[in-house]
Amino acid sequence: MTAAVDARLPVTGGVHLAVRSSNPDGPEVPVLLVHGLASNARTWDDVADRLVELGHPVAAVDQRGHGRSDKPDTGYDFATVTADLAAVIGGLAWSDDRRPLVAGQSWGGNVVLELAVRHPAATRAIACVDGGTLEVARHFPTWEQCLAAMTPPRLAGLSARELETMVRTWHPDWSPAGVAGTLANMEVLPDGTISPWLSLDHHLAVVRQLWEHHPPERWPLVGVPVLLIPSVLADDFGIAAAEAALAPGRLRVAGFPGADHDVHIQHPVEVADLLHAFCRERLSE
C-alpha cells in the first residue's frame, strides 16, 4: 500500500489487530478493507493504492488470528470479530460524517454483513466481494460434510519459493503486489519453509461460524446501502435473497462472472473503481 502506516489497534478482550492505513486526510469517503478466511490485509494493496489515487482514506486490517494480528484461542465468532472491526473504526476516528464504507471479501463479506447488522452506526455502507451471500449450510447440510470439504490443505513444510511458484502458476495474470499479498498469508520460518499465520484450530472455528451463518436471515436487518461484487451470478449464490430483502435503490450488484474467487486481487483497479463509484452515487448526500 502506497505510503502505508502500520499500527496495532486495541480491540475486544485486550487483543491487538494490525492495521495498514494510508491517505488519512483524503477528501473522499474512508474505506476499510477486510480480508477473507486464512488471508491478510496485504491482499488489498492494489485496491488500496487505487482508492488512494481517487482520494479515499484507506485502511486494511488483519483480523484476529491472521497476519500480524494477535492470535488468541477464542473470539472467532461473528459477535467478536464484528466488535473488533467496530473498535478499529473507532481507533481510526472514523465516526459521524467520516463513517467508512467497509468492504469484505469471502468470509470478510459475511463479517461486514454482520457488522452492518450488529453495529449499524459504525458504517456508512458495506461492500461484499465474492462473499456475504453464500449460505454454506445449503451446500453442506451436515457439519461433517462441511468439515471434510473446507478443512484447508496442509501447506506447512513447503518452501516460500515453492509457494511463490505455485501462486504464479495458478494466477499468471496477478500483479506482483497481488502475489506478494497472497504469500503474506504465510509466515516464513528461519529454515525457509512456510507456516500459515492462521492455525488449523482457529481456521476451523471460523468455518464452523460460517456453516452456522444464514445471510438470508440477516439481509432484512441491514439499514445501509450495499454493493455486491460476486464472481458468480448463479441463482444459488444468494444474491436473490439480498435483492428481495433490501429496499429499492439500497442494493447494487456488479459481478465479474468467471473471475477468480479473489476478485480483488485479479481485478484490483476495477474493484476499487466500483467502490469509488458506489460512494459517489449512493453516499454523496
Within the CATH hierarchy, at the fold level, what is the topology?
Answer: Rossmann fold
Task: Give the class from helix and strand content and strand pairing.
Answer: alpha/beta
At CATH level 2, the architecture is 3-Layer(aba) Sandwich
Residue fraction in strands: 15-25%
Contiguous uncertain segments of 5+ residues: none
How helical, in percent, are the residues?
25-40%
Tell me how many strands there are. Answer: 10
The SSE string, one letter per element, is EEEHEHEHEHHHHEEHHEHEHH
Give the overall pLDDT as a whole number: 94
- Provide the domain count: 1
The CATH C-level name is Alpha Beta
CATH homologous superfamily heading? Alpha/Beta hydrolase fold, catalytic domain
Characterize the largest beta sheet: strand count, sense, and whether it forms a barrel: 8 strands, mixed
Q: Give the neighbour order of strands across the main sheet.
A: 1-2-4-3-5-6-9-10
Assembly form of the protein? single chain
Q: What gross morphology would you assign? A: globular
* Distance N to C terminus: 29 Å
Tally of alpha and pi helices:
12
What Rg is obtained from the alpha carbons, in whole angstroms? 18 Å
Structure description:
The chain is α/β, with parallel strands linked by helices and about 280 residues long. The chain has a single domain (about 5-140, about 215-280), classed as Alpha/Beta hydrolase fold, catalytic domain (Rossmann fold, 3-Layer(aba) Sandwich), CATH 3.40.50.1820. The protein is built from twelve helices and ten strands. The chain has helices at about 45-55, 80-90, 105-120, 135-140, 145-150, 160-170, 175-185, 200-210, 215-220, 240-245, 265, 270-280; strands spanning about 5-10, 15-20, 30-35, 60, 100-105, 125-130, 185-190, 195, 225-230, 250-255. The strands form two sheets. Strands 1-2-4-3-5-6-9-10 form an eight-stranded mixed beta sheet, with helices on both faces. α1 (about 45-55) links the parallel β3 and β4 (about 60). α1 crosses α12 (about 270-280), α5 (about 145-150) packs across α8 and α6 packs across α7 (about 175-185). The longest helix has 15 residues, at about 270-280. The protein is globular, with a radius of gyration of 18 Å. The mean pLDDT is about 95.
